[in-house]
Amino acid sequence: MAGSVNSGGEMTNAQLFQQMALLRWLSSQTDDDRMILAAVTGVQVGRELLNRFTGQEKVDAYKRECILSISEFLRQNPRASQANINAEVEKRVLVFAAQVKALETASIF
Questions:
Q1: CA 69, CA 61: separation in Å to the nearest integer?
Q2: How far is CA 58 from CA 5, 25, 75, in A?
Q3: Alpha helices, DSSP H, located in the chain
Q4: Is the pTM of this model over 0.90?
Q5: Using CA of residue 4, residue 46, residue 101, residue 84, what is the dihedral sign?
Q6: Selection from 57, 83, 89 nearest residue 71 by Cα
Q7: For residue 89, what are the contacts with CB-CB under 8 A and spacing of at least 6?
Q8: Domain tally for the chain?
Q9: Cα 75 to Cα 37, 54, 68, 85, distances in angstroms
Q10: 16 and 41 share a domain?
């Protein structure tokens, strides 16, 4: 998810900008700072909605997973025949394709 805390526990850039805008507005409560907070929050919400509609982050994650699983197979099977490698790659690509296809029917919320 685009607005999620990253794996290291830190805020994403979008979250940091939003928190900075919120802190600024909380300390001043001016209309200008409220408008900045609203704009930053609006951009973050828009980005998250776009990601949910397109599913691009999930597709990218599935692609990385596919590539990593193929490379792990090659690492664990350095003497695999070309036929075995081709079969494994085909299997992993089919799994990737099925995962992407499943996104078409998944709920966005």
A1: 12
A2: 16, 34, 25
A3: 13-28, 31-54, 56-76, 82-105
A4: no
A5: negative
A6: 89
A7: 70
A8: 2
A9: 49, 33, 10, 11
A10: yes
Task: Determine the structural domain holding residue 13 and report its residue range.
Answer: 1-54
Write down the residue that tokens 């805008």 correspond to: 21
Q: Which long-range contacts (CB under 8 A, 24 or more apart) does 44-49 make?
A: 44/2, 44/3, 44/14, 44/15, 44/17, 44/18, 47/2, 47/3, 47/14, 48/1, 48/2, 48/3
Which tens digits make up the pLDDT trace of 34-90? 899 999 999 989 988 888 888 888 999 999 999 999 999 999 999 999 999 999 999
- What is the C-alpha to C-alpha distance for residues 26 and 37, in angstroms, rounded to an integer? 10
